[in-house]
Amino acid sequence: MQPRDLSDHVAYEAGRGIEEVARELECDPSELVKLASNENPHGPSPAATVALREAASSVSSYPKAAHADLTAAVADRWGVDDAQVWLANGGDGAIDYLHRAMLEPDDTVLVPTPGFAYYGMSARFHHGDVAEYALERAADFEQTAETVLESYDGERIVWVTSPHNPTGSTMPLAEIERLAAETADETLVVVDEAYGEFADRESAVALIEGRDGFDARDDVAVLRTFSKAYGLAGVRLGYAVVPDAWADAYTRVNTPFAASELACRAGLAAVDDDEHVERTVETALESRASMREEIDAHVWDSEGNFVLVAVGDASAVAEEMQERGVIVRDCSSFGLPGCVRITCGTDEETERAVETLNAVLDDLEIDPDSAGSEVSDA
User: Fold this and answer.
1) Which of 23-37, 71-85, 116-130, 343-357 shows the lowest per-residue confidence on average (mean pLDDT)?
2) Edge-to-edge strand order for the sheet containing 157-161?
3) 314-362: pLDDT as tens digits
4) Domain 18-36+274-373 is classified in which CATH homologous superfamily?
5) Where in the chain is the domain with CATH 3.90.1150.10?
6) Domain 46-270 belongs to what topology?
């Protein structure tokens, strides 16, 4: 007996963890700095930590009340009805729910390249096909409606990542509105705003609700997560905000109680911890600016909690930086073999990353100007 044919499926490559690398290098984990997975350098919301401790004794019960309470809190934060908030086991779970709700077998989704591999993985899990639109390195990965429409061919779902991972570029709301208007009535545009707190832009929820001068649309959905700005990556909590017209589909596609009691209680505490989010965003802004100014290679503008750096040979640079105690993301798996992605860390972590990268570039004799101007065909 064998599973179904999975030959078209590509495994997701996560950033390497500190414990894993420490075992490989035979060193103490405290000697390493991990800036590979876009995690929060300040850890979880302190309020969420307290809530997790207090909720530990209640994990024998299903999280029905906590799920309802968190849904209401998130809905209130965005000014939408409770039914429009689809809680999930991380942002990945929300991707799955949207695919379950929208895709018939052999429907196609349109995804950005480079981009987050799980869009395509999830579509294939749900027996869909995948097409791609390119964000061009020569254009600094600019995101416009035209960029997407040039590749659009009636796909059921179009994925937009804003801020985009791994480049940090964003798509303005007016461009997202144009994209939704110029795609078919049965095409859903999903805007993944996992890094939205770090961007100086309004959320695409405005397009769903008809705010800020936009008409309300029933063909736009928004993805958000508690993993980044709230520091809750380990509890796996995300959600989608969907149009009211089809919000009730959630009860037919969600996994029962996928957002756990611990996740919901942590989310309830974190969603009101504005101080922690503001501190996290401020750190990211300072770190982004520092890396752009001080790294001796081309660093793209970013509105996420990370920067993309042209280094010529990502594998060699990432491996050497790891040997020197700084873990960054080799972007070869994104189709960018000449780039690494560095998460925004604390002042100390950012300083160490900059110094290490510059030393590695010098020791490997990489020409920063050449690395910055190189355009990948991937």
Assistant:
1) 23-37
2) 85-88, 238-241, 220-225, 188-192, 157-161, 108-113, 129-134
3) 999 999 999 999 999 999 999 999 999 999 999 999 999 999 999 999 9
4) Aspartate Aminotransferase, domain 1 (3.90.1150.10)
5) 18-36+274-373
6) Aspartate Aminotransferase; domain 2 (3.40.640)
Question: Distance between CA atoms of 98 and 26, rounded to whole angstroms?
Answer: 43
Give start-end residues of each CATH 3.40.640.10 domain in the chain.
Answer: 46-270
| Beta bridge partner(s), residue 329 | 341
Residue-level pLDDT at 372: 45
**pTM of the shown model:** 0.93
Cis peptide, bond prior to residue 114, ω within 30 of zero: yes
| 17: phi then psi, degrees, rounded to nearest 5 | -85, 160
Query: How far is it, in rounded angstroms, from Cα 235 to Cα 55?
Result: 13
Contact between residue 70 and residue 259 where contact means Cβ atoms under 8 Å apart: yes
What tokens appear for 34 in the block? 């991990």
CB atoms within 10 A of CB 64: 12
Q: What is the mean pLDDT of residues 234-248?
A: 97
Tokens (6 digits) for 288: 């982004």
Q: Could you identify the residue written with the tokens 């972590």?
A: 349
b vs e for 340-372, b when ≥16 Cβ sit within 10 Å of the residue's Cβ?
bbbbbbeeebbebbbebbeebbeeeebebeebb
For residues 284 and 306, give the distance between their C-alpha atoms in angstroms, rounded to a whole number: 8
Taking a C-beta distance cutoff of 8 angstroms, is the pair 230, 213 a contact?
no
Torsion angle, CA of 273/71/164/278, rounded to 10 degrees?
A: -10
Question: Token pair of 93, please?
Answer: 């779970």
Q: What is the DSSP string of 285-352?
A: HHHHHHHHHH-SS-B---SSSEEEEE-S-HHHHHHHHHHTTEEEEEGGGGT-TTEEEEE---HHHHHH
Q: Residue 112 pairs with which residues in a beta bridge? A: 133
**Alpha carbon of residue 373 to chain centroid:** 26
Report the C-alpha gap between 350 and 334 in whole angstroms.
23
Report phi then psi at 132, rounded to 5. Answer: -130, 150
For residue 155, the one-letter residue type is E
Tell me: the pLDDT tens digits for 264-279?
999 999 999 999 999 9
